[in-house]
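agent> Task received from the user: take the single chain below, predict its 3D structure, and emit structure tokens. No templates, no multimer pairing.
agent> Plan: (1) validate residues, (2) run structure prediction, (3) serialize to tokens, (4) report one or two observations.
agent> Step 1 OK, no nonstandard residues flagged.
tool_call: predict_structure(input=
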Amino acid sequence: MTQSWTVHPVISHDDWEAYALLDENGIGFLIGERHEVQSAIETMTAALDGILAEPIKEDDESLGTRWLSISEACHEAHAYDPDAYPLDSNLAYRIRQAARRGALTGAYQGPSNRWKFQARRFRHWLAKEKAHRPGPPLREL
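)
tool_result: status=success, residues=141
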């Protein structure tokens, strides 16, 4: 059996003894102190026996997916290109309209009709200039 996960002691500037779990690509997460490693082992063993918590979505914030509010999306757009995205009341409207017409994927309207935007997909939309224009795509002459 090939070992695809490795546990590493974490080097800290104080005397904190913690451990990290890395996959074969070197990507992982901090588990914590020895007692937290033991708790994680017990929980994983229980999971193999079918004892699981409630399902979560693949883009849940607890799995590292960052979601932006409309205000955060406006500031992200302005930081990307201040001339194209001035911080005015029209910017929030433009972003909401792009989400409504489906040009901005990874957006949803949550409770109280508040929009949330998946940060990674929002940044992709910002970089895709043609996606910002409403209506059919422009044809080259």
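agent> Step 4: summary for the user.
The chain has two domains: 5-53, 67-132.
agent> Done.
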